[in-house]
Amino acid sequence: MAENEKVLVVDFGGQYNQLIARRVRECNVYCEIISYRAGLDAIRAANPVGIILTGGPNSVYLEDAPTMDPALFEMGIPVLGICYGSQLMSHLLGGHVCRAPEREYGKTLVHTSSQSPIFQNVSRDTICWMSHNDYIETPAPGFMITAYTDNCPVAAAENREKNLYAVQFHPEVLHTQEGKQMLHNFVYNVCGCKGDWKMDSFVERSIAALREKIGDGKVLCALSGGVDSSVAAAMLSKAVGSQLTCVFVDHGLLRKNEMEQVCEIFGGDEFEMNFICVDARQRYYDKLAGVEEPEKKRKIIGEEFIRIFEEEAKKIGRVDFLVQGTIYPDVVESGLGGESTVIKSHHNVGGLPDYVDFKEIVEPLRDLFKDEVRQAGRELGLPEYLVSRQPFPGPGLAVRIIGEVTPEKVAMVQDADAIWREEIAKAGLESQLSQYFAALTNMRSVGVMGDERTYDYAIALRAVTTVDFMTAESAEIPWSVLQTVTSRIVNEVKHVNRVLYDCTGKPPATIEWE
Ligand code: XMP
């Protein structure tokens, strides 16, 4: 595949580092994250047109602080240092970095210079996000100060001749109101990028590359109906058509109408492939009967999935390639990209390669962030409801039914969930929420319906906002929406007589109820 122009984010362990790469890509410039430990040769080998040094939790003047070979600044490649990155650049080039008299944290008014290429089309007084204990007291020789705040004499500095730029604040976070413009300025005005990272051409080139790689080989894909596996399947279908077989398992724990929707799209005319929908509902209900413990449920569901997939694979015979919907954050979070130490614990198809006989794994979305995956899905002709779908756990509704799973309880939670989703859509709240669903509590209580006493279940509604799903806030839903949903659920869903709204954040709760 022809190479895109590339900006490299050198990761020093800061919390916003994936965001930097995302923002650069939003400017239509391809961007990858690499750990600072990879060293200069790896950076050179990546052949970047620009380098961004990230923030990080350390102090440059401490003995074990992460560092870089200063030859980095002599390679003739433009460098932008952010927060720790800016301090490190100054420190290595002879400036003075020390503990600031006052820690600067939060939205801060920054005064910028009109001379700097980084601040073109940026206001002279602009709000930026600061989060630092140290600061640059004196910039390195050859640098001039291009921004300051009331507490920070060097909020930005640059050596234009050498194309080195340092900003103390975080242009990548949305709290920095003109941050995107600043990053745009760096990649276009300083690095001279043309902006060749576009989803339409990515999709086109990926299809061509997959075609070449796969030749006349057979490809197998486990399709969950989630965004990643759907986009991966759609892409492979466009690349190799009927050489692809997709296996979709209905474990009876899907949302209402989900099985029908997935079958309609992938079993229809738009995508050429062998589409197998396995109706394993009863098989799952049998396995789950009497099981109450969440982790046990998860384990049963995962194992059964592998077994079914294996059975289907055997029917197909030998396959050459297995598709996985791995995306870029998975790569970074499994420690292969930057400095992130978080290992993803929820993986829909974990364990598959051990059980299926195949030659190679193909991961067509490996380079993409989630929003780019969605964009690729649109380019491939997938419907909007599928590409903008919220995350859905692999064990499905089993983790939204407290205690034992029965077909009756699945129906209850499916119906309540469908009402909740419908009313959220009607109220136009979808785009403000990261994840929302109904859960069935294992609690029954007394109520009254007409003249009759009832003893029925309580449904819990959940809606959260989050950036990374590691922490989350319970969303503020207008009372009128909650009232409408409540009255619809108790009227339309049999055996539910109470509706609760979960106001808990994560932590201390988790997003799912189990
Ligand atoms: P929690 O409940 O841990 O959820 O706050 C964080 C995110 O992960 C999803 N989740 C799962 N996904 N298998 C999955 O594939 C699971 O067992 C699982 N449990 C939680 C959850 O929906 C949320 O997006």
Descriptive key words:
binds xanthosine-5'-monophosphate, 3 domains, Rossmann fold, 514 residues, five-stranded parallel β-sheet, globular, GMP Synthetase, Chain A, domain 3, alpha/beta
User: What is the name of the CATH superfamily of the largest domain?
Assistant: HUPs
- The helical percent reads 25-40%
CATH hierarchy class name of the largest domain? Alpha Beta
- Poorly predicted regions are 341-351
Number of strands: 18
Q: Indicate how many domains the architecture comprises.
A: 3
Q: In terms of structural class, how would the helical and strand content be classed?
A: alpha/beta
Structural overview:
The chain is an alpha/beta fold and 514 residues long. Helix 5 packs across helix 6, helix 5 packs across helix 11 and helix 6 crosses helix 11 (370-379). The chain has helices at 17-26, 39-45, 84-92, 179-190, 199-214, 227-240, 258-266, 281-288, 294-316, 328-333, 370-379, 384-387, 407-426, 479-492, and strands at 6-11, 30-35, 50-53, 79-82, 96-112, 125-138, 144-148, 156-159, 164-167, 219-223, 244-250, 274-279, 321-323, 360-362, 435-449, 452-465, 473-474, 496-501. The model is unreliable at 341-351 (pLDDT under 50). The protein folds into three domains: 6-190, Class I glutamine amidotransferase (GATase) domain (Rossmann fold, 3-Layer(aba) Sandwich); 199-387, Rossmann fold; 406-501, GMP Synthetase, Chain A, domain 3 (2-Layer Sandwich). The strands form three sheets. Strands 2-1-3-4-9-8-7-5-6 form a nine-stranded mixed beta sheet, with helices on both faces. Strands 12-11-10-13-14 form a five-stranded parallel beta sheet, sandwiched between helices. Strands 15, 16, 17 and 18 form a four-stranded mixed beta sheet that branches. Helix 1 links the parallel strand 1 (6-11) and strand 2. It is globular. The site of xanthosine-5'-monophosphate has 14 residues, from loops.
